[in-house]
Amino acid sequence: MRRTILSFERPEAALVEGFRGLLERYSPSCFVSDVMERRRTLRSDIRPVVGGRFAGPAVTVKLYPGDLVDCLDALKVTEAGDVIVVDAAGETETSIWGGLMAGLCMQRGVAGAVVDGAIRDIDEIRDLGFPIFSRAVVPRSTHSPYSGRLEPIEVNVTITCGGTIVAPGDIVLLDRNCHTSHHYGMVLSGAHVVYLDAYPLNEYSMYGAVPIRSIKERLLELKRAGKLDRVKLVLLTNCTFDGIVYDVERVMEECLAIKPDLIFLWDEAWFAFAGFHPTYRRRTGMGAAARLRDRFRDPEFRQRYVQFKKQFGDPDDGDPRWLDTRLVPDPDRARIRVYVTHSTHKTLTALRQGSMIHVYDQDFKQKVEEAFHEAYMTHTSTSPNYQILASLDIGRRQVELEGYELVQKQVDHAMALRERIATHALLKKYFRFLATGDLIPREYRPSGIETYFDSEQRWARMEECWHTDEFVVDPTRLTLHIGATGIDGDTFKHDYLMLKYGIQINKTSRNTVLFMTNIGTTRSSVAYLIEILVKIAQALDERNEDMSPPERKLHQLKVESLTERLPALPDFSHFHRFFRCGSGSMTPEGDMRKGYFMAYNEDLCQYVTLRDLHKHIASGREVVSAMFVIPYPPGFPILVPGQAISKEILAFIEALDTREIHGYRPELGFRVFTDEALVESANVVASDAAPVRITEPKAA
Q: Could you say which of 3.50.30.40, 3.30.450.20, 3.30.870.10, 3.40.50.1860 is the CATH number of the domain covering 2-166?
């Protein structure tokens, strides 16, 4: 294993400088140990080999006994003032540090090193004046100079040095209703997560997208708390399963005004086709990245930034205008760092699982390339499926040659289907496709347009929305509202579409089902769907005519439950204080990895039934989930490890009529942490129990 986590939780600069100020006093380590009540103190056999005092953020290195290698990988992530702390398992017969490593550290401004193992070349290190502590000195080197092998090694992971635990961490802003794989990715990476809540669409039991105002609010909150340097990534889904598309260019431009080196990961799993149509392309991650880079080179944009800076200054003062004003980044500091994932097989021509990662990162060569390829090789097979690769190449070539025509036909078929449902006397009695006004609240639509289709202008108004509104709706995502039928989405999917007519769909909510057109959709398939919906509507008419009065009343109650009495969608509650990042932290980031691996220890967990949960929460007890809980639909976690369970979440679960909830066992209840687990002493238990692991909107 060779793993380097490129970022970690750096303490606030003022705190680091405070500790460095102590170095001028007598025996500073002694009174620091006293203040900390003798905890977190290294053992006596870790001693200074080359004298000198130092303090700084720790870059951790984990090596493996019997197979020790050089520590050069640590230099990939160190900054001036850092301290390298190496867990060499206390092995004293092989040195893992020498004059070369010390010289390279001096060049990078590393403050010093602590090695729970052996070092060598102390004459050179002494001449360099590089301060270092270690357990032993021995001339025997690692095998790296002879074998050429630089693994196994892990950088920026939890280690033990001199009997003391040292751990990394960073912050990621994450769309809560993104694909489930991203949540597990946060666990594996050890990232500290700040969940962003999308606006709710309670009347359709689904979420929309995350407003730019909410993203800026979180970034500025972290900036005021002195944690902006730890914010590495914003992850959003574009477009969502239901077709809500971001103004990608605006999101990145405004975020870069707050943090110029922020990385963006756009999950465009269902949007691979968008790059081949001019209307769609401007709202893709790759298209927006290229335009932003050109814009930042433009002298007119530079002048615009100067005027903006003169008017608004710096956001440190908490000026609320920063939330409601379109921010302008400094073109000299902003870096375009954009990553996009496409599940190519979903919307273009490719075999199942055929996917692509697209990179537009100005710092890729300097900061990312080696780690990116290492991570890619870690999570993929060394025996590739050449059929899938060939299909990706064919799909790429196909859309290069005729992509615009194929995508335009896809849009035309969707428009025809929408128009037919809206104008058919029988169909519109039970069904309607949700329009822009249904899926996007008015405050995010400056155009004021409620629907793309108008009997006079036809579809001409779509272009206006796509140039002005914060969010738009992809017309090829056809969310069919079925509340008037009195049939819930899951039943309509299985009992009507699938079993009777062999039509398979991916997503439902309580009162909607989702259809999609793609480049393979034909006129005959559109006609077939309309024919089937007409048959269903006719059968519903016959059923309703034959109902007795009691049956009619029950049917009306069912319709009301699907159109009027819908449960409110819960926001993310909060991480329990035990999983918050730092004592007394006022910012919302949490450590899911800690909760995830704590749950491996059976002694720290218990099952609690839904009824008992209500009692515990009513009594004031804070109950904390030990697992991901994911109902299908909507297909994203409503609970993650370390999250406090709220009464709103329980009410939503009780109102669900879905067939499956991953992470919930009806016979046992919810897996939660015991009260005893959530005390500070459980830190040691969790660390011992955690095995080593590599590390918005709807689930696919």
A: 3.50.30.40
**CATH class of the region 171-387:** alpha beta
* Torsion over CA: 363, 367, 373, 378 (sign): negative
Give the type of residue at 256: L
Give start-end residues of each CATH 3.90.105.10 domain in the chain.
577-689
How far is Cα 418 from Cα 403, in angstroms, rounded to an integer?
A: 23
- Residue 51 identity (one-letter amino acid): G
- Size of the chain in residues: 700
Q: What is the pTM of this model?
A: 0.74
Tokens 């010289």 belong to residue: 103
Q: Which fold has domain 389-563?
A: Aspartate Aminotransferase, domain 1 (3.90.1150)
CA distance 588 to 575: 7
pLDDT band at residue 12 using 50, 70 and 90 as cut-offs: confident
**pLDDT tens figures, 124-143:** 999 899 999 998 899 988 87
**CB of 551 within 8 A of CB of 543?**
no
Show the DSSP H helices in 476-570 as ranges. 489-491, 499-501, 523-545, 549-563
The DSSP code for 682 is: H
Q: How far apart are CA 225 and CA 78, in angstroms?
A: 23
